[in-house]
Structure formats: C-alpha cells, structure tokens
Amino acid sequence: MTKRVSERFSDGKLSQRIASAVASTPIRDIHTHLYDPAFGKLVLWGIDDLLVYHYLVAESFRHFELSYENFWALTKPQQAELIWRALFLEHAPISEAARGVITTLNRLGLDVRKNDLPKIRKWFNAWHPKDFVDHCLDLANVSTVCMTNSPFDVDEQGVWANSFKRHPRFESGLRLDPLILNYKSTMRQIRSMGYEVNPTLTRKTVSELRRFLRDWTTRIDPRYAMVSLPPTFKYPSDSMTQRILDSVVLPHCVEADLPFAMMLGVRRQVNSELGMAGDGLGVSNLRSLENMCLQYPQQKFLATVLSRENQHELCVLARKFRNLHVFGCWWFTNIPSIIEEMTSMRLELLGFSFTAQHSDARVVDQLIYKWDHTREVVTKVLQKAYGSLSSVGWEPTNAELQRDVQALLGGSFEEFCRHGSNLSPSKTMSQ
Ligand code: HDL
Ligand code: ZN
Fold first, then answer.
1. Which of 266, 360, 364, 373, when mutated, tests ligand 1's pocket best, judged by the most ligand atoms within 8 Å of its CB?
2. What b/e readout covers 262-298, taking b as 16+ CB neighbours within 10 angstroms?
3. Is the pTM of this model over 0.90?
4. What is the DSSP-derived secondary structure letter of residue 227?
5. What are the phi and psi torsion angles at 296 (to 5°)?
6. Percent of the chain residues topping a pLDDT of 90
7. Of the candidates 238, 115, 259, the residue with the CA atom closest to the CA atom of residue 174
8. Which atom of ligand 1 approaches the CA of 31 most closely?
9. Would you give the DSSP letter of residue 327?
10. Distance separating alpha carbons of residues 343 and 377, to the nearest angstrom
11. Do the Cβ atoms of 265 and 281 come closer than 8 Å?
C-alpha cells in the first residue's frame, strides 16, 4: 500500500540505517595529491599547510590589500596568519574550504573557538608525520588513497629512484599532463632521462616514449594513467596532443590494461599571480570523450568534468559507453550544493555504476573534512532515493545498503577496473 508522501521520509529507522551505512563504509579515495610518508618533505600536513591551501589563498585575496608579490614573499606561517585573520577571525569560516578547516580541527579534538594559532601549531608539532598520516586516514575512515605521481616532477623522481617500502594504504596514479599537453617542451626532459626521443614522432621516438611509459608503469604500479585537459580539448584533431594519445599513451594503456582517467575543463593560470590558486574552468565539448570511447572500445576510461554545465551530458554519455566510468565532484564542483545535485542526477541516470567522490586532498588532514562533508551529502541524497523506493514497498536490507554505499565509495571503481570492457567495433566518430 503506497504511503502518503508525508510518511515517506518520516521513517527515521530507514534514514538512520542509511546514515550509519554511509558513516561506517571505508572509502577508496581514487584521486588525491597526497603522498606516502616515504615522500618526506612532499607530505603536507598540519595547520599551516591547511591554511595556505590554494582554495583558501584564492578566497583570502578577496579581502587582502597587500600585493600578490608581498604575499608570496612571506613565510608559510606568515601567510597562514593572514588567511586565518581574513577568513576565520574577521568573517565566519563559512566557505566550504574554510568550514573544512573547522571540521578538521574539531574532529582532531581541538577547541575551534580558541583562536590561538600558536597553540594549535604546538598541538600539531607534537605529532610524528607518519603517525599523523595514519591517524587522519583512520579518523576519515579512508582505506586507501590514490596519489598523483608525475614522472616529470624532479622531487618525485628522487624518491622513486631508490626502492622504498610502500605504505599499504597509498596507491599511485601516473600523471601525464606534460607529455600529452606540452610534448615539445617535455621532450628534452624525457631525453635527459635516457630516452632517445625527437620533436617529431618518428617510429624510434614512439617506441622510446612507449618504453618510458612501460618503465614508469613498472616502477610505480599505477591504478590508472591520468591527464587533466582544457575545455578546448578536441578529439580527433590534427594536434600533437592527439598524436601522443593515439600513438603512445592509449596503446600503452591498452597493452598494460591501465584505465585512462581524463579530467576535463580546467583553464590553467587564468590569474597567474595567484599561483596554484589561479586556475579556472570552462565548458568542455564532450563529443571528444565520446569519440575516444568509440575509437577505443577495449580501453577503460575514467572521467570527471569541471564545469557544472557538463555534468548531465557526462551522465548520458556514460549510459552509452560501459567503458566510461564517471567519478567525483571535482574541485569547484566539490561543494555541498553541487555534490547534492550531481549525486542525485548520477543515481537517477547511472544507478550505482559510478564513483561518487574523490577528495583531491593535498594536505592529509583534509581527508577528514572532505569525506565528512561528502558523507553528509551522500547520506541526504540516499535517504531521499531509498525513501522513494520504500514508499512503494521496496526497503533495502542492511546488507544491501552496505553493498550499495560501498559501490559509490570505491566499489564501482574496483569492479570497473576488474571488468573487461571490450565493446563492439567502433562506428564513425561524430565531430
Ligand atoms: O589537476 C588536478 O588534479 C586538480 O585537482 C588540481 O590539482 C587542482 O589544483 C586541485 O587541487 N583541485 O582540487
Ligand atoms: Zn587533482
């Protein structure tokens, strides 16, 4: 018998079961900028790293009078002091990134109304980095995080050059932006690493670039290869980017059975004075993604898009191609109002066959707030979705709830990576 709408969501029992399923499900965080503790100085943690996070830098400059130059000349603690004053003392920390710092400090057991930065610093300084990393993973209930590893980052090269014991909860991701987007300038660096590559993609250069990718795949054992792409990315197009994709990167991914993750829509350095905080976004033409899924039916693609306007089309595209896995509320969409809209739409169009979120965390403490805030929203969305089912007589068991929530928080990604995705031969590509 259909319950009246008013009764639908009054079922506190079901709502509570959903809330505890979401709270208790460990997360596979499939994209972050965190580092295994073995990476030493590359590991960011503690109050000053939290406060100088580029999201907060961008927001703080809206209140600053000092010049960009004078800000960047300050030490990290001095920058943190200015950000703390602008966003946490002179205004309520109401933005997602500012509220995140408060959530994090609160969950670490600190009194967030005691605006005593030196005292907070002292508390963090009492921790050993490795213990603190594990503490944050446990508090956030995150089972594993995937790093963003660049063969072109000199600091990273130094670590990978020596074998080291990997932290079991840190996986790697092979980031290839410089190769795919700026081959001309990257070629020299690859040559200096011992590969005989030229500016034009001769047979020899292609085979050396494939060797380069094979070597780094063996070295870091990535979950996927990855690139971020501008809104102007076009495939096919008569460009070096496409030639690198078609002759080097995608054949390597097929050979290595490596999913290829594309993050579409970033406009780098819209305001270069802001440094890492200076990037913006644009609406992408997702026909390019469609064409790649058609051109490479046996290749697994992961995709996330930066523009809110692209989200619906991405879901429809994923309905057409089972070798396309949608993931995360990336960057400027990683705010509760948009996470709610995106997750509802994805459930309605894709069921559980997507990954609801990745944290994109850069500072290990951020795992705590990025996942607390996401769990809040996912709980709300699932309570509404299961509430509708329950009102027509379909109520999930606890085991079904665990299964479904786990799918959204890493399980579907795992299943996608396990499955073959060979589809029928591709048809002609649309422009
Ligand atoms: O390109 C990327 O992986 C982005 O996530 C950028 O690193 C960006 O600066 C970021 O941290 N977004 O959350
Ligand atoms: Zn990222």
1. 360
2. bbbbbeeeeeeebeebbbebbebbbebbbbbbbebbe
3. yes
4. E
5. -125, 70
6. 93
7. 259
8. 3
9. B
10. 9
11. yes
Is the pLDDT reported for residue 2 higher than 70? no
Contacts of 139 (CB under 8 A, 6+ apart): 107, 108, 367, 368
| pLDDT tens-digit readout, 330-366 | 999 999 999 999 999 999 999 999 999 999 999 999 9
Query: Mapping DSSP to helix (H, G, I), strand (E, B) and coil, where does residue 341 land?
Result: helix
Q: Read off the tokens for 248.
A: 């080097």
- CA 327 to ligand 1 centroid distance, Å: 14
Distance CA 95, CA 98 (A): 5
Categorize the per-residue pLDDT at 425 as very low, low, confident or very high, splitting at 50, 70 and 90: very low
List, chain by chain if needed, residues with CB within 6 Å of any ligand 1 atom: 33, 148, 228, 263, 266, 276, 331, 360, 362
Residues of the chain above pLDDT 70, percent: 94
pLDDT at 431 > cutoff 60: no
Q: Whose CA is nearest to atom 11 of ligand 1?
A: 360
Nearest ligand 1 atom, CA 360: 13
Please name the residue whose Cα sits nearest to atom 5 of ligand 1: 360
> What is the spatial distance between Cα 133 and Cα 140, in angstroms, rounded to a whole number?
11
> How far is 43 from 150, CA to CA, in rounded Å?
15
Residue type, 257: D
CA gap 244, 325 in Å, rounded: 22
170-175/222-229 β-pairing:
parallel
Instruction: Determine the distance separating the centroid of ligand 1 and the alpha carbon of 331, expressed in angstroms.
Output: 6
Residues contacting residue 47 through CB under 8 Å, at least 6 positions apart:
80, 105, 117, 120, 121, 124
Closest CA to 180 of 290, 274, 264: 264
* CB 54 within 8 Å of CB 275: yes
DSSP structure string for 97-165: HHHHHHHHHHHTT--TT---HHHHHHHHHTS-HHHHHHHHHHHHTEEEEE--B-TT-HHHHHHHTS--P
What's the confidence (pLDDT) of residue 420?
Answer: 60
**Number of Cβ atoms within 10 Å of the Cβ of 308:** 18
The CA 418 to ligand 1 mean position distance, Å, reads: 26
Instruction: For residue range 235-258, list pLDDT tens digits in order.
Output: 999 999 999 999 999 999 999 999
Q: How far apart are CA 199 and CA 185, in angstroms?
A: 9
- H-helix or E-strand spanning residue 199: none
| Ligand 1 atom showing the smallest separation from residue 177 Cα | 1
